[in-house]
Amino acid sequence: MNIAILGAGAAGMICGSCLRDNTLAIALRRLGHEVTLVPLYTPMRTEEPSAAIDDVFYGGVNAWLQFASGLFRKTPRFVDWLFDRPWLLKWAGQYGTQTNPSQLADFAMAVLQGDDGPVAKELHRLADFLSGLEKRPEIVTLPNAMLIGLAGLIKRQLNCRVVCELTGEDIFLDAMDESQRNAMREAIRQHEQHVDLFLATSRYYANHMAKYLGIPAERIAVVSSGVSEKHMRPTLPGQAPQRPPTIGYLARICPEKGPDRAIDVFRRLKHRPGMEATKLRIAGYLGKAQEAWWADIWIQAQHDGLARDIEFLGEVELGTKLLFLDAIDVLCVPTRYAEAKGIYVVEALGHGVPAVLPAHGSFIELAELTGAIELFAADNLDEAAEKVAGLLGDVDRRRRMGEAGWRVAKERLTDTRMAEEFVRQVSRAG
């Protein structure tokens, strides 16, 4: 098949959706499909070599200027080109990530309006590009429902099937006030008719978004996230490494993901007999909007005498991430919200690392599938500490769980399996 994947860049941040789109594009090509990966808003940052084209569509600066002023809706392309320079898009994107979603509601609505909205010039440029490809796409995927306004024109102009991914829109929408959120959901429903299939990354998120957006459940298929063989250990070590028991947190540094809760679990753990030597390693992207929040948490950890046993690595590239996973015994990411994807869990399982996670979202499915995850009641950090302590104190059980997760990851949570399931689902769309 000829497939165009539209991927929303995250302003220089390594994000799960970008990683998934890039990994999917590479795996689909390996299976013999023609794939064009098109960045939207900002260039996509990935861990493995990028599969994306160089051009950026719906460039964050151009799209905002066209939304804000009628003048920029008529400028020629050579003027727009100046505002699509990668350094400028990265800077603008970082500003956008610091902005409360409620302040972006009008802009998001402008994009949702598609061909009838103030950013229509960008939509036409994208549709013209896709229809001008040497091999015109039979399938075009949208990165999330906030871009569903693109579907109608693309479908008409290319005479193709349009697939819309569902990747965490509820977090963005729930940060708006009720009237904004309701208006957005209504706008999404108005464009639903132009989408042939919605794709969620877990059964949980498919069911949740069917209710949240009012989309018929039968129109949402599930394609679980997979990772490449570079993320998988080829073999597991023969014996446990000689180091203090070590917990790992690997996710974005923000309240939703719960790094502060990981420290709270660690605090409880350190008071347990036999756990005094335990260490905590934290890795993940820290945005400017969260720096003050994280600084306060770190000051409290220092005040409590915990900081000397916590290592904060910040954002990690692929090589450093793999070393990080090799140096932990249990993954604990106590998210406040129900995770739609949980790619970092799959990466840990691919290294034979079991996990202790809250019993919500995609974590429940991963626990059922792998047998390598201990679940705790989402708000019960005492239970989380107890489960972590149980794994750290029982090397044999930890190893059995880690091996079980590793085997399932290598067999069923790979990029190839993800690509094969993607093809199977989109082939029946329309």
General description of the model:
With 430 residues, the chain is α/β, with parallel strands linked by helices. 45% of the residues lie in helices and 13% in strands. The chain has helices at 16-30, 60-68, 77-82, 86-97, 105-112, 120-131, 151-158, 169-174, 178-191, 203-213, 259-270, 291-303, 318-326, 343-349, 362-370, 381-392, 395-412, 415-427, and strands at 2-8, 34-40, 139-142, 161-166, 197-200, 220-222, 246-250, 279-283, 310-314, 330-332, 355-358, 373-376. The strands form 2 sheets. A 6-stranded parallel sheet has the order 2-1-3-4-5-6, with helices on both faces. α5 (105-112) runs parallel beside α9 (178-191). The mean pLDDT is 90.
Question: What labels would you give this structure?
Answer:
430 residues, alpha/beta, Rossmann fold, 6-stranded parallel beta sheet, 18 helices, globular
Question: What structural class do helix, strand and pairing data support?
Answer: alpha/beta
CATH class of the largest domain: Alpha Beta
The CATH architecture designation of the largest domain is 3-Layer(aba) Sandwich
**In total, how many beta strands?**
12
Strand content: 5-15%
The main sheet comes to: 6 strands, parallel
Helix content: 40-55%
| SSE order, one letter for each helix or strand | EHEHHHHHEHEHHEHEEHEHEHEHEHEHHH
Mean pLDDT: 90
Strand ordering within the main sheet: 2-1-3-4-5-6
Q: Roughly how many Å apart are the termini?
A: 15 Å
Low-confidence parts:
none
Total individual domains = 2
CATH superfamily name of the largest domain? Glycogen Phosphorylase B
* Gyration radius, rounded: 22 Å
Outline, from the CA principal axes? globular
Number of helices: 18
